[in-house]
Specification:
Strand content: 5-15%
Largest sheet: 7 strands, mixed
Radius of gyration: 24 Å
Order of helices and strands: HHHHHHHHHEHHEEHHEEEHEEEHEHHHHH
Shape: globular
Number of helices: 20
Strand order of the largest sheet: 8-7-4-5-6-9-10
Number of strands: 10
């Protein structure tokens, strides 16, 4: 029988683990100073080094992108290419294991505070989210379409996709020959802008680089003119973050935020085909007062009994992982507060308007607030305790990411089912629940909605119990598919039938 937590000095162990990580980080900085950054141009150096590192599977399972990116951006050695890599990766194994332990200890030491940053740190070192490549490609194209920037078109995303496929198919990175893959025109200009020159971050520490968010927006390293996709997994799963960052640098935060709002509205509109629902975007509002026009980013209504008010947040999540909880409270709570005020105004008789026209929706209609973000804030959007602590709101709102909005749009059959799903999701999270991913909640909804709702009812009668949605296992081939699912019925069957991970 495991010993009670009270018999361990959790606070002391946490302090020791942090000091241990600081020492490892210092050694990591010293190790980076030895490695020649040209090493990243050839994956075979990393493959060979991993074979010599005990516990390397921990790096492989959790993703090695971060450490390759660090070598390319911050390596400053001038010696033999590949030299010092085994020692560096060995340190990375210990650092990753230490981070996982520290995250667990932090959640034990402060169960009611700091959980968001701990979850974010854990996810950054051991990713557990299913990210479909087709979803990030579609969102990337929508962002470009609605930004309407001269010099870059949606075809740049297709060219980038082909570039990455060519490198993978021909094993060009493994042979140090990424330059042989075709990348020209606007796609090359995009990638060049989203790359970092070799060694340019050599003055920054291992500790800061380990959680640096520039890997999201600059996943390539420019190795003497060859653009190496060092953060390959990030590119395959969340390239829309890179595209968003590129557009923000080109047109500014306001313009790209407007494009993001339009992109989310377009995604929701996919669920309105052949239904009585419609999506309202641009100049939508529920007047709150004389000094508050009550602008809403998008609205979905059937003009009778249902209304969804949507708020889109595209603020940057900060330069480092340790800002996650602060930014969740600042950005998402702001969106929730805005929606809460607008919903209350609507229920009090203030009409929904678009431009100068009033939209005929009765004040008795059921109103749901929906927040769409670029990031999952370390998994906080599926963690009821993190949401309650950061949002401090009695009202329940659906907070989802742009990627997951695309997933819902291609999986659910219409707005009616979206409303049913959001209710199911809210019921789950109302029981101090936690999920690792939106996909896990969606799969449960499709597999056995009625049965799991009965479990919710059972849980409501039990105090101090935290529900955990069983995580699903997704084949790599399914994640890497570049074409969005066409047959809704067959795709729904795939999602509902995803197996639980073995530990469950």
């Amino acid at each position: 029988m495991p010993l009670p937590v009270e018999e361990f000095d959790v606070t002391g162990l946490l302090a020791e683990s942090r000091m241990y990580l600081e020492r490892l980080a210092d050694r990591g900085s010293e190790s980076l100073a030895v490695i020649n950054p040209v090493t990243v141009a050839n994956w075979s150096y990393f493959g060979a080094a991993l074979c010599r590192v005990p516990g390397a599977q921990l790096l492989i399972d959790g993703g090695i992108d971060r450490f390759i990116w660090m070598v390319g951006c911050a390596g400053s050695g001038t010696g033999r290419v590949g030299s010092g890599l085994v020692e560096f990766l060995n340190l990375c194994v210990y650092w990753r294991a230490g981070q996982i332990l520290a995250g667990m200890l932090e959640s034990l030491a402060s169960p009611d505070a700091g959980g968001t940053n701990a979850s974010a740190a854990l996810n950054s070192v051991f990713p557990a989210r299913a990210r479909f490549r087709w979803a990030t490609i579609e969102m990337s194209k929508l962002l470009i379409r609605h930004t309407d920037l001269s010099g870059v078109s949606e075809s740049a995303v297709d060219s980038l996709t082909f570039y990455l496929e060519c490198i993978d198919r021909e094993n060009l990175w493994a042979s140090g020959n990424c330059g042989a893959a075709p990348l020209t025109g606007e796609a090359r200009l995009l990638v060049e802008d989203c790359s970092i020159a070799m060694g340019v971050l050599s003055n920054e520490s291992f500790a800061s680089l380990a959680f640096d968010r520039r890997m999201d927006t600059h996943p390539f390293v420019n190795s003497e003119g060859v653009l190496v996709p060092v953060a390959a997994q990030k590119l395959l799963s969340e390239s829309h973050l890179m595209v968003f960052g590129y557009l923000r640098r080109r047109v500014g935060q306001h313009s790209v935020a407007t494009a993001f709002e339009a992109s989310c509205a377009s995604m929701v509109a996919k669920l309105c085909d052949s239904t009585s629902f419609r999506v309202l975007h641009s100049s939508v509002a529920v007047k709150v007062g004389n000094h508050d026009p009550g602008e809403v980013d998008f609205a979905v209504t059937d003009d009778r009994k249902n209304l969804v008010l949507g708020e889109v947040k595209s603020n940057v999540v900060g330069s480092s992982i340790d800002t996650t909880e602060q930014l969740l409270a600042k950005q998402v709570s702001k969106a929730v507060e805005q929606l809460d005020v607008r919903i209350q105004a609507f229920k009090s008789g203030s009409p929904l308007t678009q431009g100068c026209e009033q939209v005929q929706v009765p004040s008795s209609a059921k109103v749901i607030g929906m927040v769409v973000t670029l990031h999952d804030y370390g998994g906080a959007v599926w963690n009821s305790q993190d949401l309650d602590r950061s949002l401090r709101s009695k009202a329940r709102f659906a907070v989802t990411t742009a990627h997951d909005l695309a997933l819902l749009a291609h999986t659910l059959t219409g707005i009616d089912e979206l409303l049913a799903y959001l209710d199911f999701r809210e019921r789950f999270l109302s029981h101090s629940a936690v999920s690792m991913d939106e996909l896990d909640i969606l799969a449960a909804f499709l597999e056995d909605e009625d049965g799991i709702r009965k479990q919710f009812n059972h849980l409501s009668a039990i105090s101090n119990v935290r529900a955990i949605m069983k995580p699903r296992n997704v084949d790599r081939e399914l994640l890497l598919c570049t074409e969005a699912p066409e047959g809704c019925t067959s795709w729904r069957q795939v999602v509902a039938g995803l197996p639980a991970v073995p530990v469950w």
